[in-house]
Amino acid sequence: AQKITQTQPGMFVQEKEAVTLDCTYDTSDPSYGLFWYKQPSSGEMIFLIYQGSYDQQNATEGRYSLNFQKARKSANLVISASQLGDSAMYFCAMRGAAGGTSYGKLTFGQGTILTVHP
Amino acid sequence: GAGVSQSPSNKVTEKGKDVELRCDPISGHTALYWYRQRLGQGLEFLIYFQGNSAPDKSGLPSDRFSAERTGESVSTLTIQRTQQEDSAVYLCASSLMNTGELFFGEGSRLTVL
Fold first, then answer.
1. To which H or E segment does residue A13 belong?
2. Helix or strand or coil: residue B72?
3. Cα distance from B72 to chain A (closest Cα, Å)?
4. Do B106 and A110 touch (CB under 8 A)?
5. Inter-chain CB proximity A105 and B43 less than 8 Å
6. Which residues of B60-83 are buried (b: 16+ CB within 10 A; e: fewer)?
7. Which of A36, A102, B46, B59 has the most other CB atoms within 10 Å of its CB?
8. Per mean pLDDT, which range of A86-90, A92-96, B8-12, B76-80 is the poorest?
């Protein structure tokens, strides 16, 4: 079974500063994918970034980067130069590899609410 | 349309009534997912379709919940004899095959009185 843990119910950051949102995971699958989604107050789910477990480099997408530490089973999201519009709920998620028991579905963590202060 | 479409966007029903929630995925997306999100909570997996078969129904909370999908198109989630604890936003998502990112609809907010 897969499990995603987000230990920070809420985080605060000053505008223009960087913030790290924590995510740890547990899986028995030899390969897997890790995702981060953003959910603003409007409720839509917005895909941010993806990291494959065998990717050699940490994923980056604009101001978003994923600090992937495989041995520690962590996949923290780093948002640089925070903006007021970054205030939202952030979810970490995992999908297992093809042929594995967890293939197909994404398992989500409980989320972290990020508030950006001006 | 370009995105995942869900209907109704809001549904208020009385306890004991049946409800149907509809999801129209992105054209060409073979995988379709249903999740439930209670207020302030994370996403709870319900069921996943690859084509019109459901390899993983493990998240359906009870036999009051069922889902079907026609080909690689529309899916319907049916909740029979609704209970107040069924109140939540039901999110549908689709993806190209069963790899890559999920694209979510805006959800159907269900309120059971």
1. strand A10-14
2. coil
3. 15
4. no
5. no
6. beeeebebebeebeebebebeebe
7. A36
8. A92-96
Per-residue pLDDT of B42-52, as tens digits, reads: 999 999 898 88
Residue A118, C-beta contacts closer than 8 angstroms, at least 6 positions apart: A15, A84
Cross-chain Cβ contact B103/A104 below 8 Å: no
* Distances from the Cα of A53 to the Cα of A21, A34, A80, B24, angstroms: 19, 8, 23, 31
What residues are paired with A66 via a beta bridge?
A77
Residue A109 in this model has a pLDDT that exceeds 70 = yes
- What is the per-residue pLDDT for A56? 86
Residues in CB range of A62: below 8 A, 6 or more apart: none
pLDDT class of A31 with cuts at 50, 70, 90: confident
Q: In this predicted structure, what is the pLDDT of residue A99?
A: 63
Nearest CB to A104; choose among B91, B98, B101: B98
| Cβ–Cβ gap B104/A109 under 8 Å | no
